[in-house]
């Protein structure tokens, strides 16, 4: 009996060693270093062109912290790549429609003062780079953004003011228009925005025809902001279904062949119930959502503690098997093969980026 037990233990150890060796060998030939300045090299480009052809959405999950500055230039790497090779013209972010109004105005004019967080250097740099890139593209191929989340406090008033016509409003809605004109667009105060939005929403419901006439073709945009299905009070709430619905609503109008999106990794782990899985289960996007999650190693930001909690169940494997192949600050791992060897990791997303030493 003792000999049989020892033989069993030895067999298990041998199988484990082989499995470890197999995953290491796989990762050795399926990883791609890249830089934020130059983007992907030709080997990575060839792989991505082959792998992404059947997808309608490439969704990057921001691990570690939203405050890590490298996510701005990383967004540009993906947007530029997908634009050049797949004809991408629309990408979304984890903000509301008022934010994309301001960002797209900046893309049109090159004026970064329109940006919701214009004082953040990394944000200004991304939109400026995209503005310069768009300048090289024909009009129909220029890239723009859209929001699928709740309206941000730093965008709401600023965007509504931008949408106001220069003409005097009808008397019935003048009080509400003046309320928007005189609103404080520098406050980062959720209660203030909720109260203001409640008044504007009520006024539109009571005088819809007058508002429609006054705002003309911008009325639908105003309604999209004011009647957003989320709120700045929802920061810690489950917003996944709302974001999925907002994306599908945008797609119903645009019907693009491919989109790019960037959300916190809590919304992108494919095996969980979240925005990514809601979209991947939708009839039009079923199995056409490609997830690129991000693991941060030795990263830090003064705003909060960096954490990769979304992938804690495979974190020890990431450190043991993936990290040794990370010879640069950014490494892309291809986990898209539907084989037993990668199934455990591919359940989280088809690709994984490991970012090292970022802040």
What does this structure look like?
Helix content is 47%, strand content 12%. With 359 residues, it is of the alpha/beta class. An 8-stranded mixed β-sheet has the order 1-7-8-6-2-5-3-4, with helices on both faces. The longest helix has 27 residues, at 2-28. Residues 4-18 have low confidence and may be disordered.
Task: Set out the fold topology.
Layout: H1 2-28, E1 31-34, H2 42-51, E2 57-62, H3 71-86, E3 90-93, H4 97-109, H5 121-134, E4 144-147, H6 156-163, H7 171-181, H8 190-206, H9 208-215, H10 219-226, H11 240-254, E5 259-264, H12 275-281, E6 289-297, H13 315-322, E7 330-334, H14 340-346, E8 351-356
Parallel strand pairs: 2-5, 2-6, 3-4, 3-5, 6-8
Antiparallel strand pairs: 1-7, 7-8
Helix pairs in contact: 3-5, 4-5, 4-6, 7-8, 8-9, 11-12
Summarize the structure.
It is built from 14 helices and 8 strands.
Q: What's the main sheet like? A: 8 strands, mixed
Unreliable runs: 4-18
Question: From the alpha-carbon coordinates, what is the Rg to the nearest angstrom?
Answer: 23 Å
Major sheet: order of its strands? 1-7-8-6-2-5-3-4
Mean pLDDT: 93
The succession of helices and strands, N to C, reads HEHEHEHHEHHHHHHEHEHEHE
Record field, number of beta strands: 8
Give the overall silhouette: elongated
**Quaternary organisation:** single chain
Instruction: State the helicity in percent bands.
Output: 40-55%
Distance between the termini: 56 Å
Structural class: alpha/beta
| Tally of helical segments | 14
């Amino acid at each position: 009996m003792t000999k049989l037990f020892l033989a069993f233990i030895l067999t298990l150890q041998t199988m484990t060693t082989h499995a470890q060796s197999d995953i290491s060998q796989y990762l050795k030939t399926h990883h791609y270093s890249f830089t934020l300045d130059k983007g992907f090299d030709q080997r990575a480009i060839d792989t991505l062109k082959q792998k992404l052809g059947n997808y309608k959405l490439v969704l990057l999950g921001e691990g570690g912290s939203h405050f890590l500055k490298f996510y701005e230039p990383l967004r540009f790497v993906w947007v530029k790549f997908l634009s050049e090779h797949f004809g991408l013209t629309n990408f979304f972010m984890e903000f509301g429609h008022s934010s994309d109004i301001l960002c797209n105005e900046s893309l049109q004019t090159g004026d970064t003062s329109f940006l919701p967080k214009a004082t953040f250097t990394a944000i200004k740099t991304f939109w400026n780079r995209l503005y310069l890139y768009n300048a090289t593209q024909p009009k129909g191929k220029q890239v723009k953004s859209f929001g699928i989340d709740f309206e941000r406090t730093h965008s709401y008033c600023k965007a509504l003011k931008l949408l106001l016509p220069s003409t005097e409003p009808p008397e019935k809605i003048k009080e509400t228009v003046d309320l928007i004109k005189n609103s404080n667009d520098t406050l980062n105060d959720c209660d203030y925005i909720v109260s203001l939005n409640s008044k504007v929403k009520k006024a539109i419901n009571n005088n819809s025809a007058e508002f429609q006439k006054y705002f003309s073709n911008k009325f639908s945009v105003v309604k999209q902001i004011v009647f957003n299905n989320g709120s700045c009070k929802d920061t810690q709430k489950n917003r996944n279904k709302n974001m999925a619905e907002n994306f599908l609503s945008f797609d119903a109008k645009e019907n693009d062949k491919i989109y790019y999106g960037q959300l916190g990794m809590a919304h992108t782990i494919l095996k969980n119930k979240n925005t990514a899985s809601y979209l991947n289960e939708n009839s039009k996007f079923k199995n056409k959502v490609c997830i690129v999650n991000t693991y941060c190693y030795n990263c830090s930001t003064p705003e909060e503690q960096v954490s990769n909690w979304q992938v804690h169940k495979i974190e020890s494997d990431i450190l043991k098997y993936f990290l040794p192949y990370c010879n640069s600050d950014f490494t892309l791992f291809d986990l898209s093969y539907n084989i037993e060897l990668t199934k455990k990791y591919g359940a989280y997303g088809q690709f994984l980026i490991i970012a090292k030493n970022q802040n």
